[in-house]
Automatic annotation (TrEMBL):
Stated name of the protein: tRNA (guanine-N(1)-)-methyltransferase
Name of encoding gene: trmD
Subcellular location: Cytoplasm
UniProt GO MF annotations: tRNA (guanine(37)-N1)-methyltransferase activity
EC number in record: 2.1.1.228
Gene source species: Carboxydothermus ferrireducens DSM 11255
């Protein structure tokens, strides 16, 4: 996958996108990331990339020309251009999977009050929002999307399996994860995970995912629905939870 980022602050990306998995993905040549400084495409001697809003009002608006010139300078093949903005389509794992199929993504990062509307009209394929809050710029939103999308590109994550059975992949939250030590300050690792019985372990993990999702994100279950087996697993989970109540000592009023 080729990624081009149009921004006034390329330095904001160097840390997050040049570490760990994304760094390795670039070293392996699976992902290529180019940073294009919009200010390099300004023509006036003050290199002005923003200006006062027509019609008055606070703040500054990013100018259309430098962005269009920067965009036109990018070699394109099956390119998909994304503008980050609060009024965009809400980003989620489903959209991440869609974008991970693309060959070439171009991100336009706004700043200040926003970007001249004609940029959206001329070159934007999709506006995307990472959430209902206002950022100082689109850069961090672009980083969030690049991180979530890049890890779904084949070859970026160690074994693809992990991408398959993770949160939201099946609209279920994750099951609890444990590693050594077996006991930490009195907190034990669940016996079943030490049993080596993978059928039992998979069942326990599915039950935990269902319980987790029911307690924390019932909205996801309402969208996803439950199979008969899953309902039985959940009831079993409830029953086991209820049994725990009996273990709790009585307390005088
Ligand atoms: C944003 C978001 C976001 C709005 C004005 C940048 C800021 C400034 N982008 N999801 N939420 N952008 O708040 O994507 O230009």
């Amino acid at each position: 996958m080729k990624i081009d980022i149009l921004t006034l602050f390329p330095e904001m990306f160097y840390g997050p996108l040049n570490s760990s998995i994304l760094k390795k993905a670039q070293e392996k040549g699976i992902i290529t990331i180019n940073y294009i400084n919009i200010r390099d495409f300004t023509t006036d001697r003050h290199h002005q990339a923003d200006d006062k809003p027509y019609g008055g009002g606070a703040g500054m608006v990013m100018k259309v020309e430098p962005i269009i010139k920067a965009y036109e300078a990018i070699p394109k093949n099956n390119s998909f251009t994304i503008m980050l903005s609060p009024q965009g389509r809400k980003f989620n794992q489903k959209l991440a999977r869609e974008l991970s199929q693309k060959e070439h993504l171009i991100f336009i990062c706004g700043h200040y009050e926003g970007i001249d509307e004609r940029v959206r009209q001329l070159i934007v394929d999709e506006e995307i929002s990472i959430g209902d809050y206002i950022l100082t710029g689109g850069e961090i939103a672009a980083m969030v999307i690049i991180d979530a999308v890049a890890r779904l590109v084949p070859g970026v994550l160690g074994d693809e399996v992990s991408a398959e059975e993770e949160s939201f992949s099946d609209l279920l939250l994750e099951y609890p994860h444990y590693t050594r030590p077996r006991n930490f300050r009195g907190l034990e690792v669940p016996e079943v995970l030490l049993s080596g019985n993978h059928k039992k372990i998979d069942l326990w993990r599915k039950k935990q995912s269902l319980l987790n999702t029911l307690f924390r994100r019932r909205d996801l279950l309402k969208v996803r629905g439950l199979t008969k087996e899953e309902k039985i697993l959940l009831w079993q989970g409830f029953f086991e939870l209820a049994m725990l109540i009996d273990e709790i000592p009585e307390r005088s009023e």
